[in-house]
Amino acid sequence: MTLPRIKVLALGGTIATRPDASGAMQMGLGADDLVAAVPALATLAAIDAETVSRVGSHSLGFDQIHALAARIAALDVDGVIVTQGTDTLEETSFLLDLLLDRDIPVIVTAAMRNPALTSPDGPGNLLAAVRVACDPWVRAHARALGVMAVMLDEVYAASDVLKIHPTRLNAFASPQTGPLATLVEDRVVPLSLPVREAIVGARKRLGTIGGKAAPVALLWIALDEPGHLVEALMMAEDHLGYCGVVLGGLGGGHVPERAADLIMRLAGILPTVMSPRAGGGPMLRQTYGGPSSEIALRKAGLIWGGRLHPLKARVLLETCLRAGLGRDIIAEVFDAFG
Ligand code: ASP
Asked: Is 5-194's fold the same as 200-335's?
């Protein structure tokens, strides 16, 4: 029996750290080291390992993930595993999901516990990721599943997975939808297929993305926010270098009344997406009246972010702007997310 050909691309992160002389963890391990630490991989797949970078995921950038997506798009393999840090996994995996349209499993995995600790989770997560990539159900549904994240024996959709704890082993979850599959013994047990119309629609609009970086500011709206940052963004000649804004809004899509006028004016100057600071879930569109309600904000031109978490909305807005989409098309792309 020929084993599936799996490419492991290592970017860095805690999974790839090792202690220096002082005991502090530093980036160091490459893809070959990660694979060598899990002998059982050889029984599942023909692995080809490649070290792409050795950086913490807090230092990854949009350009690097675009380059990674281009690399993955050109690979002649049966599945791809990306190893990286956990800090930005919820963003990088979603960006890969927006950029890739492949019918092979593409999985991002990582580790919460570094290799110097007792019972590190990196080897188990890598083994689980390869097991998922080789699973017949996953392979048959690869396009329908989109890019996945595998952490602690659960499989998540890139569009939904969130890092919900800074240090715990069980730091990942998809609070809105739950996992796509779970692992037990040596089996992958399917649970659900994601609803992907909005992502497929976004991809069609995005086309081939050749543009340059389009930084997006992420502003969390909170109790009594006066809007000074919004004003600074608006007034600065170059908008402080930002091309768009995502607001983590209150409740169903609200802002404090004292900041409403500034935020509405901002939406006339830069594409401004309202996204729920509650962490995702569809927002209201037509329930509350009043000067800072969702009805007023939508009328003033704020783009409604749908059910996307603000971090995912920021990734999607950067990608739309990089692709050169105008405000109205961007609003349509987001509208499909609910
Ligand atoms: N700071 C690390 C990173 O994201 C954390 C981790 O990998 O868990 O690269």
From this structure: yes
Asked whether 126 lines ligand 1 (CB < 6 A), one says: no
Tokens of 97: 């999901």
Please determine, looking at this structure, whether the domain spanning 200-335 carries the CATH number 3.40.50.40: yes
User: Mind listing the pLDDT tens digit for each residue in 57-82?
Assistant: 999 999 999 999 999 999 999 999 99
Using an 8 Å Cβ cutoff, are 137 and 190 in contact?
Answer: yes
Ligand 1 touching residue 249 (CB < 6 A): no
CB of 56 closer than 6 angstroms to any ligand 1 atom: yes
Closest CA to 73 of 130, 128, 7: 7
The protein residue whose alpha carbon is closest to atom 1 in ligand 1 is 56
The model's pLDDT over 280-292, given as tens digits with 9 standing for 90+, comes to 999 999 999 999 9
Residue 299 pLDDT? 98
Among the atoms of ligand 1, which is closest to the Cα of residue 58? 4
Cβ atoms < 10 Å from Cβ of 241: 10
Domain 5-194 has CATH 3.40.50.1170: yes
Distance between CA atoms of 305 and 117, rounded to whole angstroms? 40
Q: What is the CA radius of gyration of the chain?
A: 21
| Domain boundaries along the sequence of the chain | 5-194, 200-335
Between the CA of 303 and the centroid of ligand 1 the distance, in Å, is 32
